[in-house]
Structures are given as structure tokens and as C-alpha cells.
Specification:
With 309 residues, this protein is α+β, with helices and mostly antiparallel strands. It has 11 helices and 7 strands. Strand 4 and strand 5 form a beta hairpin. The termini are far apart. Its EC number is 3.4.19.12.
Amino acid sequence: MSGGWNTIESDAGVFTYLIEKLGVKDVQFEELITLEPDELRQAGQVYGVIFLFKYPTGESRSDKPKDGSFDHDAANDLFFAAQTIQNACGTQALLSVLLNKDGEVEIGKELREFKEFAGEFPPELRGETLSNSDLIREVHNSFARSSPFIDETQRTATEDDDVYHFIAYTSVNNKLYELDGLQPAPISHGPCTVDQFPDKVIPVLQRRINRYPATEIRFNLLACVQDLRIRAREMGDEEALEVEEQKRNEWLWENALRRHNFVGFVGELLKGVVKDKLNQGNGAYEKWVEESKAKTKRRGDAQKSGGDQ
């Protein structure tokens, strides 16, 4: 393999522009705040959901899932890939939805060719093919948060680490499937048409969350939906269209910031401030340092006394 995979955030803007760079058209992601079927339905045409949760590092595969049932034959009828590399699960989850919606969704030339090529393989080889795709890896890594201090590709999780995992839920062939590359096969949660998906998937997610302690709140749910600007244009809703365009502009700005670290900038800014103080002369630099020390001490004293500064 020619390179590693970096971690990406569970963020609607990241996922939306990631799939656009892969060639997918007229699809976006929306973060869901509540586990309510109505909220999911309000997102319009729903293709699936991506669920992020804390993964128990000591957990291993079993012959029977904790909910639903393994459908080993389904891997021949839908796209299911084993996860073979760390940090790729976010992109793998969104592809688990989109590659199973080819026909409903315009996935683009590159992903269609990838699906046709890898689709003939068993899940393990599909996972290897995905992990070794230069295109998919490079697009994935282009949305990783820049960090000058940590090389995520070299980090290995231990029992004490918080490890998070992405999985997908979607309706394929009128069944609700959980697609998790760390499991040996797709997990069926019973009959489910596309229209029934919001009502069927929410109870499954609720049962999964209920397996965690009540204090565990670190979950994130993203819906894969038709571009909301399409519905706004069809309805002639100029206000909704403006909101969606503004959201896209904000996502672009946030994604641009993710690609840069500002350590160098902050360092140069600090050097400029110090140089300015030194150039002022008359002890300005020493006075500035002493004032800063005094302010820091006041804050510390206030925090110890329970006050606010």
C-alpha cells in the first residue's frame, strides 16, 4: 500500500464534500439531533444513515450479533466490504450506503468502476481493494484535520483509549441492513422498504444506544439524503434555498480550515508582538511580561476560590 489513512471527523460538511470529490452528485449529509423518525423523514429522500459510536477495544467477533441476524448470503447481492485498515471506517461506511444505492444515486464514473471491479470479490478482498484505492484514500485524507503534533497513521489503540467506529444502515432489497466492516457479514434487521426506513431504523439505533451506560453520550448520527437544495428549488422555497446555500458556504470555509494547522502562524504572530514590545523601549517589554504574569496569577487565584475573572 502506498500510504496510510488518517482520521476524519463525523461532520456533515466533511462527508458531503468528500463524496462530491469522489464524483457523487445531488447527495448530502445532515446531522440528526434526535432519534425521532419524524426528524429523519423531514430530511426528504433518505438513502441511509451513518452512526458513530465508541467501540469497545476488547470486543471480538461472535457467531451471533447482539441485535438482528447475520445474512451471509446478502454479501453476494449487495456491496459489503470487510474493514482491513485502521481509520478508514468513516469513508467505508458512507460507501456502504452509496454503493448500494447505485441507480437511485448518481455515484459517478470512478466509484461505479470501483464497484464493478471489487464487487466480484469476497468481502475481505473488497476491503483490501478499497484500502488500496489511491483515489479514495487521497480524497479521504484531504479531509483529515491537520495536526503538526500527532501522526494518526502511526497510532495504535490500547484498551485505555477511546476508539470510535462508523457503521452504516440502509434499506437494500426491502430489508434493513447494518453494514459494519468489522463484522463477518451484513446484519439483517428484518423487512424494510425505502419508505419504511425512518420508522424501522430508529428503534434499532435506540436498542444499540441502550446497551451503553446512561452516562455515555458520545454518539453521532448523520443522514445520507438527497441534496436539500433540489427540494427547495422544486417547491420554490427561496428562504430554504438561501439557508442551504449559506450552509454550503460555511462547510467550505470549515473544510478549508481543517486542511491547515496554524502553529506557524501563531508563532510568527507572537514573535511580531514581542518584537513590537522590544522596539518600544523604555521597559515596555518587561512591563508587558509582568502584567501578563500578574493577570495569570489573578485568574489562578479566582479559579481556586471558585470565582470568575
